[in-house]
């Protein structure tokens, strides 16, 4: 079963339209000119504007130093007219990511990247929660595998999922192939965020598995692909449930980020 992320996202937006419109603006900060980062921000901007939310994008050159960026963040965050602040990742490698993120007031942290200090749930974790609820997946007594230990996907998903399933395995992309094969074959739920096209194939999974794919990369032809290769699904995999790429987790993630903005500005 293909899990239609665009449809689920539209349902979230329809619910948000019924709520009072936040009067404050949603601000975003972009350092450098990473095309993927700019593309992600444009999606967030489009969603915000469609709901009538004022969206402000602040662009800074890649050669800005950390202290300079911190001062800009603090100035934007101190504005009472700003109700939410996004710092688009990744940042330049010479930056202390945690120190930068710590500059976001927790009542404006729509990405919920401050972990236990955040007042909202990470949009990635909330997207997983949304999908599992939509398909009626009960985590109790299930075995889940998280592929990828990254800051943006693996870590928030692990924190959300670890006390909800019976067993959980977290694999790095460099894990032993035998362990990967054994884990994937037994998993009821696989959440992947590695960014390596074709990393997971249908014939490696249980026929009833659920695959939630946050992986994002472009192949040699520039086509966007996820970690799960859905093109290999055949008659033997008819009970698989999976998110496609594009059109799977991405739209829901954007919708849940906007939902966080509403929740922080009630």
From TrEMBL:
InterPro entries: Aminoacid_DH-like_N_sf, NAD(P)-bd_dom_sf, THF_DH/CycHdrlase, THF_DH/CycHdrlase_cat_dom, THF_DH/CycHdrlase_NAD-bd_dom. It comes from the Bacteria. GO terms for molecular function: methenyltetrahydrofolate cyclohydrolase activity; methylenetetrahydrofolate dehydrogenase (NADP+) activity. The keyword Oxidoreductase applies. It holds the Pfam family THF_DHG_CYH. One of its GO terms (biological process) is tetrahydrofolate interconversion. Residues 3-111 form the Tetrahydrofolate dehydrogenase/cyclohydrolase catalytic domain. Pathway: One-carbon metabolism; tetrahydrofolate interconversion. Residues 126-264 form the Tetrahydrofolate dehydrogenase/cyclohydrolase NAD(P)-binding domain. GO terms for cellular component: cytosol. Keywords: Amino-acid biosynthesis, Hydrolase, Methionine biosynthesis, Multifunctional enzyme, NADP, One-carbon metabolism, Oxidoreductase, Purine biosynthesis. SUPFAM superfamilies: Aminoacid dehydrogenase-like, N-terminal domain, NAD(P)-binding Rossmann-fold domains. This is Methenyltetrahydrofolate cyclohydrolase. It comes from Candidatus Harrisonbacteria bacterium RIFCSPLOWO2_02_FULL_41_13b.
